[in-house]
Amino acid sequence: MESMNLYNIFLQQQQLFQTILYAMDEGFVFLDQDLKIVDCNSSICVLLQTQNLKTAYITEFITDASKPVFLKHRKDLIEHKSIEYPITFLNSENVCISCNVKELIIVDKKNQSVGSVLLISHNTQKDEAENELLAAHVRIEELTTERKTLEQTIKKLQDALIELNLSQDSTLYKPKISQKEIIGQNDNIEIAIQNFKIAENNISSIIHCMPDAVMVIDKNGVVVAWNVAMEKLTGIKACDMLGKGNYEYAIPLYGIRKKILVDLVFETDDYLKDNYKNITRDGEIIRAENYIPLLGENGFYFEGTASGLKDPQNNVVGAIEIIRDITARVKANEKIAEQQNQMIAINEELHQTMEELTAQRDILAEKTTMLAETLDQLEKSQHKLVESAKMVALGQLIAGVAHEINTPLGAIRSSISNISETLESVLLNLPNFFKLLDGPDKMNFYILLNRSINAKIAITSKEERTYKRAIISVLTDEQIEKADDYADTLVDMGIYEDIDDLMPFLKSQNSDDVLQMAYKVSGMLRSSKTINIAIDRVSKIVFALKNFSHFNQTGEMVKANINDSLETVLTLYYNQIKQGITLIKRFDEDIPDIKCFPDELNQVWTNLIHNALQAMQNSGTLEVDISKKDSHVIVAITDSGCGIPEEIREKIFMPFFTTKPQGEGSGLGLDIVKRIIEKHNGQIQFESLPGRTTFTVTLPNNYE
Amino acid sequence: MLKNVILCVDDEKIILNSLKSQLKLEFGNAYAYETAESAIDAEELIDELVLDGCKILIIVSDWLMPGIKGDEFLIKIHKKYPQIVKIMLTGHASDEAIEKVIKEANLYQCLAKPWSGDELIQTIRNGLKKI
What is the pTM of this model? Predict the structure, then answer.
C-alpha cells in the first residue's frame, strides 16, 4: 500500500513534471547517447518549426557554425555533469534561432552516461544579428561570383583586341575590330582615341614579344620601334634608339651609318639587282640573307624581311624590318655540306681502293698461274737432274770400270801366254827331264810340285819379300850359291818357310834344273788359278754394271735384295776401297727382299760410300752393316773420317750444298739421296763425331 | 849384291803375279824382279834396293791406283832417278795423264791392258838397250 502510494505520488509528480516541461516556453529535449532526440516538448517543435522531432538527430538542427561547439560540449558534459552554453539552431525554414542551452547528463546506476537533458531558451536579439550576418555572407558570395564573371568578360574583350591577322600579302595591320568599329561603337572620339591607343599598345606589345628582331622606321627614317629581340641582338636599348634617324640603326650592325634592308624597301628592282646580289623582291616584301661579322659569337647569319608600311591611302608611313637569326641553320647546312663532301671524298677513295684491289687481284691471279707453271717446270727440271746425276754417277764409274775389266783381262792374257810358253818348252823337255832324274830328284820334284800346288798365293809383295829375305839368309848360311834366285823361285812357288827338309836337295847338283822345271810346271797351275780369279772379277764387274744401270721401265717397285744391292756397289768401288781402307761388312743373313727401285738405291749406296771414302781420304775403315727390324731393312755406312761439323749439319741435305771446291761435285748428291729414300717411304739419318760418322738408311718393305 | 832390277807396280796381285812370271820366263835370272802394290810401297822399295846397291833399270807401273796414281808416282821417281826406264801399263788412263807423264817423267812407253806379251817384251828389250 505504501508502495502504491509512492508510485501514485511518483506518477503525479511525473505528470506534473511533464506538464511543466511541455507547457513551458523553453524547449526541452531528451537526448540519448547518440544525440538522437528521445523526447521533447512542443516549444522546441515550434522553435524549430518541426513537428516530429523524435528520432531525429539534434545535430540536424544545429548550424554549421555551431556544430563544432556543440560537439565539443559533449566532453564537457561528461566531465562537469551540467553545462550551459549558447548555440544557434536552424529551423526547417533555415532561419537561425539563437538559443542558450542548459544541459544535464543522465547516468545509470553504474554512473555511465545514458543521455542528457537540454533546456533551450530562445535569444531573439541575437537571432536578428545572426541572420543579418548570414545574409551578408550570402551577398558577399554573390558579389564575388559577379566580379569573377566581369573579369572574364574583360579578358575576352582584351583578347579579341589583341588578335592580329598579319597576312603575307598585306603590309597593313588589320585589327579584328576596325578603327571605324571602335569609333563607331561609341561615336565618341575620346573613347575612340583611347581605344586606338589601346590597340596601338597591343601592337607594340606584340612587336616587343616577337622572337625575331624587329625595327620600324617612319617615312623620315626615324626609328619608331625597336623590340626586345633587337635590343638583345645589337646591345642597344630601345630607349637609346627610338626617335633616332640618319641610319643610326646601321651602326650596331655594320659599324657605319648606311642604308640597310629596311631602307631599301622602296628602291627599284634594277637598283637592287645592280647593287645587291643577295636581295630578292617578292611582291611588296624584300628578302635578303646576309652575314654580319660584328654580331654574335662568330658572326651572325640572318634572313631579313622588310616591307613598307602604308596607310589606307597607300601613302608611305614607314618601313619594317624583321631579322631572323639563321646562324644555326647556316652552320648546320655548312656542316652537312662538309659531311657530304667528306662522304664524296670517302666514296671516291673507296672506288679507287676497289679498283686497286681488283687490279691486285688480277695480278695475283696472273702470278698464281705463273707460279703453277714454274712449279711444273721445276718438277721437270728436278726429274732431269736426277736422271743426269745418275748418268754422272755412271760416267764416274765408267773410268773405274774400264780399268776393272781390263785389269783381269790383262792378267788372263798374260797368264795364257805363260801357260802356252811353258807348255811348249815343258812338253818337249819333260820326258828327257825325267829320264835324267834319279830317284831322289824325282821325289824332290814331286815334293816341290806338291808344296807349290797346295800353297796359298794370296800374300802381298811385302810379305813375299820378308819371306824371301829369310830364305836368302838361310841359304846363304848353308852356302848355297844362287841364294837370291833360289829364294825368289821358292817364294814364287809359294814355298815360304820350312825348307829345312829341302836343304839337302837344294845343295845337290841338279837342284837348279829340278827347281826350274818344278817352277815352270807349277807355274802353269798358278797361271790357271790366276785366270780363274780374273774371270771371277770380270763377271762381278759386268754383273754389277748390269745391276747398277738397270733402268726400270715401268716405274713400279720390284722386289730386290738389299745385300746384293750393296755387294754390287762395293764391287764397283773395290779398287778404291782395297788400298788403304779396311772394309768391314756385317751383312745380316736373312734380310728379306723389299720392294724398291733397285737402280735408284744403288745410286744411294754409291753416293754414301763415295762420300765416306772421300771423308777418309782413302785411308781408314769403312763399315757396312745390313740388319732388319720388323719389316724394315736398315743399312748403316760408317767411315772413320773427320766427321761433319756442327755448323753444316742442317745443310748437308740441301740441294747445291757442297764442301768441295768449285768444279768438284754438284752438291746434289745428298739431296738426290734424300729424295730417293723418301720415294721409298724410308728415312735417312746420320750421326757424326770426328773419327766416326754413320749414315743410316731405313727402308720399309713397301709390300702394300 | 849388285843386281839389275825390273820393278812392277800394280794394285792387283794377279797382274803382278802374271807379269813377273811372264818376265821371268822370258829373261830368266838375268834380272831380279821386284813387285809393289802401291806407289808408296814402291818408293820405299826403290830406296831400299838402291841402298842395297841394286840398280833399277825398268819400272812397269799401272796408272789407276788407290792413293797416289801412276803418273804422279812416275814423275816423282823421275825426279829422283831420271835414268830409270818408265813404262805405263794401264787398264785406263786419261790422255792428259799420259801426256803429263811423257812430258814430266820422260815416259818411255804406255801400254794398255790387256797387253800383248810380245809387245811388252819388245818394249822392255828396247828400253834396256837404251841404258
Answer: 0.48
